[in-house]
Amino acid sequence: MLKKRKKHSRPRPTDENVSEVDTKCSSGEAIDENTNGAEDSPETFDFECPPEKSIEQEKTVEEEEEVEQGVAATEWQMDTKASFCELCQKSFRNPSTLKVHMRCHTGEKPYSCKVCGKCFSFPGNLSKHEHIHQVGKNFTCQFCKKTFLLHKTLKKHERIHTGEKMYDCKFCSQQFLYLTSRNNHEQKHLEEQSEKGFVCVQCSKVCKTAAALVMHQKKHYFRGLKHRDGKDLQPSAAEICTWGGAASSICNDPKMTGERRSVSMPESFPPSFDDCEAPLLSYSSGVTEVIPQNVCTPSPVENVSTIGETDSSHFMTPPPLPPVALHSSVLMEVPKGWKHWKARHYNLEENLNSDHSSLKESTKTFTELKTMTSFDNPFVP
DNA sequence: CTATGCACCGATTGATAA
DNA sequence: TTATCAATCGGTGCATAG
Ligand SMILES: [Zn+2]
Ligand SMILES: [Zn+2]
Ligand SMILES: [Zn+2]
Ligand SMILES: [Zn+2]
């Protein structure tokens, strides 16, 4: 299996006094003292690459296939060769990785800063921490020459110059530079939605009840059918399989339910807009003129559970399957699938950083579709 | 207040040394 | 095969400006 080349394979400093497990950090720490600018340290300059392109997160082809095939991932986790954390249901290929991982459950922090005594679970974090005791800021912005203590900080700073806004609103096409800004914005959506009732994403019509909304949306739906005119708006079989497989695998995938904070998988998932977006994803790839409007419309969060139980048919379903049913099923129920869509959605987000071209492509289209569906969103400038 | 910006932390990953 | 480490991610908290 060819792995994607990593570019950051610099030869390790062999005999540095990098006292490994040693709880006290040796002062000569491996922490780059090649500080100012760190000439070859990939830490500092890899602006050739698109900022979001994390080489670190690239997955092996093998893993990609697992995701695509859906089932493989689950099987892999059960593989005895893999180390498995029962606490968070995560698997690791390297047993020692599991050991290290367990520290986040045990709270063990064997690495302590000898300057301030602060303890850390992971050696790398101690190294980073020790950096802050050094005088001088070591990372310089290539655009404004401002300096920063940490590489991560620099990278984030440079987004200001590059214009990269990595935080997308889940409900509209707006993007944000800061997570807090994004969250605030999304909160507004939620508040707005819950005040109004049930909003049609196509025309912004607000309905008092979900049932009314469904009736309303049927109009859009049939209108859409008229305009379709034989255009092939259907996803390819491959796409369907891919998505279907991904969904099924992910929802069973312990990896996806772990405590990995970066994924922000909520413990419980009151169906939210996320769930509504998933259907978009499912048939977005390669589709240029979809009826993305035929997505389930966000409902007030607090109402969702009720609807799911008693009025599930009011939700338009993400019809992952028969192409023929692609459009005709958009108004069908799906609540039992909430979880799956949710899971898939998060998986996509995670894979957005990977180099998986197909997932990426789909996600990209997803973003485009979000734009399409948000034309009438009051939050869109 | 809200948005912006920085300091810092927790955790994972892949390469590679042992 | 296992252990270690550099690299890098996502995230929180707080300060400050408008
Ligand atoms: Zn665990
Ligand atoms: Zn310290
Ligand atoms: Zn700058
Ligand atoms: Zn928005």
TrEMBL record:
Protein name: C2H2-type domain-containing protein
InterPro entries cross-referenced by the UniProt entry: Zinc_finger, Znf_C2H2_sf, Znf_C2H2_type
Pfam families documented for this protein: zf-C2H2 (PF00096)
Biased segments, Basic and acidic residues type: 50-60
Superkingdom, taxonomy of origin: Eukaryota
Keywords carried by this UniProt record: Metal-binding, Nucleus, Repeat, Zinc, Zinc-finger
Keyword Cell cycle assigned: no
Disordered as annotated region, ranges: 1-64
Occurrences of domain C2H2-type (ranges): 83-110, 111-138, 139-166, 167-194, 198-220
Localisation: Nucleus
Biased composition (Basic residues): 1-11
Gene3D superfamilies named among the record's database cross-references: Classic Zinc Finger
